[in-house]
Each structure stands twice: as structure tokens, then as C-alpha cells.
């Protein structure tokens, strides 16, 4: 709790603030997470691999080296300290017992200035120190928390509250919302938040259900001052609690008989420090303050041959634009990963609800704003899942035979709570050689206070221009969710190409009994411009990363398909500021040559960025991407037109895509599964 004491905040006030929701991850991570009876927890282990996350001792080395060099002091803050990965060839050549190369990358905020540092952790020396001009790094936890105290102490804000009958400001929480970029001269060069507030009187677990609509504070974080308070007039505050605990719901269903997963003989997963082995899969797992889970060196044991598939996969960025043009809403176009931190806001997972009781929970080490280590309690869970489905089966009527096998998957899960939304991120490994990436969205809609109490009210049409009336006086604003995933696929090695199999109608001769059929035509995409692709349902195609020099046993090039499921496209105009800033949403597939500095789809500093970094900028070089080491970037998106069933808490909605083998194997790789014991 030291951060709250340093900020001089009242603990009661912090508990009820929105920033607590944003900070709740970090608070629970520091040892306040729930206990997990019977759930194994993977303990911290010594460094044994070059892709291992930084340890507590290494975070201390970063601070010691930078202090000795005279670059930091007690006022220095760290929006990010993370592993500076060794060169890819060095990682691929590394063998157990070899020396473990170790470096750290840090972003340092020194007053209003931003610096980047690389620290050699083995030599305990400074490799580089550079100032970065004209950027705003991601938000600090102390800024997220401290902005509320700044807001409620401002006389104009207090006057706006008093007009609404609110005098006890400890019953108000204020939301630290990133402002985006819209070319406003008064915002240039400032580190800003826009801060709407909520009334928590009478609430329980839904502190978003009583917006104080129409009042907005604009805060300069570097100057630690409120620049302006906007008051657009009084909208009545919802009197209801909108709570969703058992006592608030009303009549409950009869309890279910137990349906829990049980593994009486134990797990089939083996943990070799941070290397995970399951069935024929093996991969390295680490956790990052910005990106969350990072999977590296994903290999498949194909009858004794260790075959590379994915050198590294991770969520790169999230973009959530809201569709309301009002003064208090238009700027809400969040970049949740780069502005706040997907890993920073990861929450402790609860056994039996968030993950099965049989899961193994992992508690990684992260660095706080001051660069000091803390434990992210139970931020990851790893488990096996059987849903009662067949992985394959056939029942033959002719000779009355049946053969089938049950499907079991391996799941790596984390859940991040970013304001009102909770995002579950799953990496799912199948016995068939597929990898699914799934995002589950739950939490609650962002709601706007309005006059209409029902759709029969005179103001209802205007009030619901940009959303749906979910409850009396509350409209859920329509919005989008876009997730960019960086997928460094290495199919049977680093020499790959990207191909598009265009599926088109073929006319048949007039004397043929049929008139048409369809046929795929394969095209090798040779440059970055060729590989900017979007789904088209009337012109379908298959996207594959193909080995340039490996074939299966009949001579087909080995490959993996990036297989979309349902997906949404960006509907904002190309010249609109949010589209410029989140340029990765322009296409659902991008392909770049491997570059270790190209990690973040919207650039390293998306907070208040102008859109001059990231995938559109990189791919303007139109580099060659054929028969080389390439990286694919997949944009998963969905439009959320709000509905009554979202409120007061949304059922989890899952969206995702699949990495599917195409001629990678010689036959069905799950053919060798045994029948279950009777």
C-alpha cells in the first residue's frame, strides 16, 4: 500500500474509485489474491533459458546500473522494464548448459522527458541510453490513481458536483481515460487524461452504473493540474445499484449438481522450469507488463523430429473506439495494451471459475512504476480441457464398425481487467496440431447517462442515437474491439513465404452435365504491399505460411494456415484520427520481414500518438517477404452493438482464429491417440 501513502490518498476513497478497478490487478498481484486450495502453483525458478522473463534480482540490477550511470533518481518512473531478447539466431542455436545471455530494455520517464535504456545484466553495465522526443509512454499506475485526487480537489469540479447534490466526494470515483489524438493545438506536447466521474452511493460491485454524465475534467499529468472542467448540464443520476451479486439478483436457480473437472491420476502437463511439454507440444512461456503472455519456441514432436512452428506469438495491441460524437465520448478510442498495459492489469485467477481446479497457476514477477519487483499472483493458469467432443470418429453402417477418440486440449489463460471490460486470452493447443487463439470479452458495457427511462419517452430516439437503452437512464454505447496478434511463424525453419490460395468459380464446358465448380489458385506474395489482406466472403481465400524448402512425404510444401473465424472490419474513415493512430485495423493480415524492433502493431508509443509508427509505416518500405524469415500480424475484430442482455454484467463472448496445419504432416497427427481406459 506504499504507493497510496506516498500519494496521500484516503484508502476508502481509492477502494471505490475507477482507478482501483484499473489498479486492482496490481493490488491483488502484490499478495492480496485469493487462496487456491488444491490448485498447484508453479514456483519461481532460476534462470535456465535465454527467453526467461526478468527476475527480481535483474530488476534490481537495472536500477543499480542506471543509478550508477547518473541517469535516474528517486523521481524516475518506469512505464516498462522487460527482457531485451537475444538475437534470434543465438536463441535458436542455444542449448541447455550454454551461457544464458541476458539484457533488459527499459522505458524511463524523468519528469516530462522519456528515455530508453538497454542494460547488460550479465556484465552489469549500460549498453545504451537515449532520449526519445515527442512521445508519451504508457500510463503509470500512480498517474491512474493520482488523477482522481487532482480532479476532486478542483473548485470548478466541486461546484459541478454540488449542483447535482453531491457533497461527499469520497463517494465519487473518476475514470482515468486516455485522450487519443485529434490535432487539437491546446493538447500538443501535454501528457493528458480526460476524466469523467461516477457516483458510488448505494453501489456494490457495479461502480460504472451511475455515471455523472456531462461533467468532464481535462488533466495535465506532467503539470499535475486540471486544465479545464466541462459541464454540459445536469442529467439525472441513476438511483439503482445495478449490482450483480447473489443478494442483488433476486430469485436464483436451483444449485447445479457438481460438474467439476477431475484428474485423479494427475496432470499430463510437465513443467521444465518455464518450458511446458504436453502431448507432442513444447513451448516457452513468459509474462510481460505490456503484452501479457508471450509464447516462444513452439515446437511439435513429429515421431521424434522436433519441428518448429511458431518462434513467438503474443497479443500486440488492442483498439477499442466508441461510436458517440459527444464532447464527453468522441475521444474514447483506447489502445489498451500500449496505453495501460495488458499484463499490468492482469487479475488473479480464481480456481473453479476462471480456471479449473486442476489447473496449474503461475505467478510471474513484474516491475512496478519505480522499477521494483512484485509478484503477479496467479496471473496465468495452464490446464487440460476435455469438453466431451470427439477429436475424430466414424461409424460405419455397412459393417457395423465404430472408431473414435476423445478430444483433449491444453489451454494457457490470462484475464486482464481494463476498466469496465475483462478480457480472457487463451492459447489452445490441440492434439491435431492446431493452435487456437481465443479472446473472451466479459465485464460490462460502457454506459452513458441519458434522460430517457424507456423507449416510449420523448427523448428516447435522440438518446439512443449511438447505442441501446439498457436500463432506465442508461445507454450502452456501441463500439468496436480490435486485437492485433504478432505471429512469428517459423514453419520447419526460418525460411518461409506467404501464399494466398484464391478460391474462385470455374466454368465447365457447355457439354458437361455441370455448369461450374470452384478451384483454388495459389499466389506467392512477394512484398509487404502484396500481403495486406482482408477477408472477402464473395472472394474467399486461404492464407498460409509455407516452408520454402520442406515438403511432406508426397511432396506438398509444409505450411500452416492462418484461419479466421468470424471477424469485423474497421468502418471508420481512413483519414479519421483514430484510424491513423490504430493503422493496423486497415487490414486483417499484414506480413513483414522479421525485425526484432517491430513488436508493437501501433508503435512503441501509441499513447497520444499521431499514427506515424507501427505497421502502416513499416510496410510502406514494401520490403521483400518471399523465402525469408517473415512475421505475420493478424487483426481480430468485432463490432459490439449493445443489447439488454449485456447489463449489468455481460455473458462472456468468445472470438478467435486458428493456426491450422496444411500438408505439414503426412497424415492425421491425432491418429495415434489411444482409446480411453474403460
How would you characterize the overall build of this protein?
This protein is mainly beta. The chain has twelve helices and 36 strands. It has an eleven-stranded mixed beta sheet with strand order 1-17-20-23-24-25-36-33-32-30-31. Strands 11, 12, 13, 14, 15, 16, 29, 34 and 35 form a nine-stranded antiparallel beta sheet that branches. Strand 21 and strand 22 (401-406) form a beta hairpin. The N and C termini lie far apart (54 Å).
Layout of strands and helices, then pairs:
Layout lengths: L1 H6 L3 H5 L2 H15 L8 E2 L13 H13 L8 E7 L4 H6 L9 E8 L2 E8 L4 E8 L8 H12 L2 H9 L8 E3 L17 E4 L1 E3 L15 E6 L4 E7 L14 H4 L20 E3 L2 E4 L2 E8 L3 E11 L2 E17 L11 E2 L1 H5 L19 E3 L2 E3 L5 E3 L4 E6 L4 E7 L4 E6 L2 E10 L2 E10 L4 E9 L3 E3 L10 H4 L3 E5 L2 E4 L1 E11 L6 E12 L8 E10 L15 E11 L5 E8 L12 H5 L7 E5 L21 H5 L10 E11 L9 E13 L16
Parallel strand pairs: 1-17
Antiparallel strand pairs: 2-3, 3-4, 4-5, 6-8, 7-9, 9-10, 11-12, 12-13, 13-14, 14-15, 15-16, 15-29, 17-20, 18-19, 20-23, 21-22, 23-24, 24-25, 25-36, 26-28, 27-28, 29-35, 30-31, 30-32, 32-33, 33-36, 34-35
Helix pairs in contact: 3-6
